[in-house]
Structure formats: structure tokens, C-alpha cells
Amino acid sequence: MPQVQTKKVTFKVAQAVELRAGLVLPPGFYTGTETRTRVEPVGSGQNWTDPRYTIKFTTGHLASIGAMNFDVTKFVRSGQLIVV
Questions:
Q1: Alpha carbons 59 and 39: distance in angstroms, whole number
Q2: What is the pLDDT of residues 44-78, one digit of tens each?
Q3: What's the rounded Cα separation, in Å, for the pair 4 and 49?
Q4: Better-scored residue on pLDDT, 82 or 38
Q5: Would you call 17 helix, strand, or coil by DSSP?
Q6: Average pLDDT over residues 8-24
Q7: 75 near 58, Cβ under 8 Å?
Q8: Three-class SS string for the chain?
Q9: Cα–Cα distance between 8 and 30 in angstroms, integer?
């Protein structure tokens, strides 16, 4: 079974980010998680997958997105959300 490493992170949002149609994350700081999975290295390759990032929304937010955890990895990689 692969080893999974999860840690709590804080995201900084400098300007509003539209996570999906109708769901805008206002500027501010948000708590989320960074998750990596240990993999068998090939040659001199890395031992961990690239991190995945999620934000856990409160019950009030759930009505508009339909899920507790929202994958924001692409927004972190594009620089719209910054891990601080």
C-alpha cells in the first residue's frame, strides 16, 4: 500500500479566483491540505508524486459546489493561490 503524506497548509488569494462557474473565492487566506504519495523511484527519479491541493469548504459553501473538498491544484500551479 502506498505511503501518503498529508499536511495542513494555508493558501493566500490576492484577488478573486473563479474556481468554477458561479463559485468565486474572494481574496483572503484559506486553510487546506497538501497531499503527496510515495512512489518507487525509477532511475534517479523522485520518490514522491507532485503535490495535490484541496480546500475544505464549510457547510454554508457546500450548497453551491456539492462537495466538502475542492481540488485547487491547478490554481496553485498557475499562481492564483499561493501556499504560505
A1: 34
A2: 666 888 999 998 876 665 555 556 788 999 999 99
A3: 10
A4: 82
A5: strand
A6: 90
A7: no
A8: CCCEEEEEEEEEECCCEEEECCEEECCEEEEEEEEEEECCCCCCCCCECCCEEEEECCHHHHHHHCCCEEECHHHHHCCCCEEC
A9: 11
Residues 6 or more apart whose CB falls under 8 angstroms from that of 46 comprise: 39
DSSP state of 79: T
Q: What is the percentage of the chain residues whose pLDDT exceeds 70?
A: 80
> Residue 22 pairs with which residues in a beta bridge?
none
C-alpha closest to that of 5 among 30, 41, 39, 44: 39
CB 6 within 8 A of CB 53: no
Give the whole-angstrom CA distance, residue 51 versus residue 40.
16
